[in-house]
Amino acid sequence: MDLLNTLVDKGLRRETPTRGEALAVLATSDDDLLDVVAAAGRVRRHWFGRRVKLNYLVNLKSGLCPEDCSYCSQRLGSKADILKYTWLKPDQASQAAAAGLAGGAKRVCLVASGRGPTDRDVDRVSETIKAIKDQNEGVEVCACLGLLSDGQAERLREAGADAYNHNLNTSESTYGDITTTHTYADRVDTVRKAHAAGLSACSGLIAGMGESDEDLVDVVFSLRELDPDSVPVNFLIPMEGTPLAKEWHLTPQRCLRILAMTRFVCPDVEVRIAGGREVHLRTMQPLALHLANSIFLGDYLTSEGQAGKADLEMIADAGFEVEGTGEVTLPEHRAGGGCGSHEGGGVCGSAAAGSCGSAPEEPRTDLVAVRRRGAGTDLAPNA
Question: Would strands 205-207 and 200-202 be described as parallel, antiparallel, or unpaired?
Answer without folding.
Answer: unpaired
